[in-house]
Structures are given as C-alpha cells and as structure tokens.
Amino acid sequence: MCARAKESLKWGVLSKPMAPARDILCLLHALRAHKLRASLTMLCADDGRGHAHHVMTIGMGANAIVEQKIANLGTNFFQIARTPSLTDFNIIIKR
User: How many domains does the chain have?
Assistant: First the structure.
C-alpha cells in the first residue's frame, strides 16, 4: 500500500487530493502486491462481457427465427374480424 493510501486509512478521509502520477504509481504498486486478486478481477470482468455478448446473440437469433416462422405463414394467415363486445363467448362460437 502506498504512503498516501495508508495516511487516508489512518485519518479516514483524504486531506489533499492525490496527484495523477502518484495515483498511477499507487495503482501499479497495488497490482504488483495483489497479482492473484487483480488477475481474477480482470478475468471475471472479461467473462462477464463475454456472457452478455452471448445472451444478446442468442436473443437476436431467437428473434430472427420467430420472424422467419411468421413470414413463412403467408400473407392471409391473420384475419381481423369485428365482433360485438359481449361477455358470452358462446354466441361468437355459434356464428
């Protein structure tokens, strides 16, 4: 842990903002000190992106299959009919 991070833990707050160059050095030091944790974190982040990509691809493929099946039904498959607003559906079925 770099000296600035230790100081912030000691006091609980940062009294001064860290310089960007010092931030990078602290970051690199932390990555070197915790190689396994850093590598597992990067692996999981990459794995999560991969899973999101696969889910999106499967969804797009399913949409394409549904569109193709609907297109293969033909143009006269769906019929729109005007029916009265009744609560008894037996009257509609008798027609």
Answer: 1
Convert 22-53 to b/e letters by CB count within 10 Å (16 or more is b): eeeebeeeeeeeeeeeeeeeeeeeeeeeeeee
Cα(22)–Cα(57) distance, rounded to whole angstroms?
42
What mean pLDDT comes out for the span 21-44?
85
- Each residue of 56-86: pLDDT tens digit? 999 999 999 988 888 887 766 666 667 655 5
Containing domain of residue 85, as a range? 3-94
Cα dihedral 81/84/86/92 (nearest 10): -50
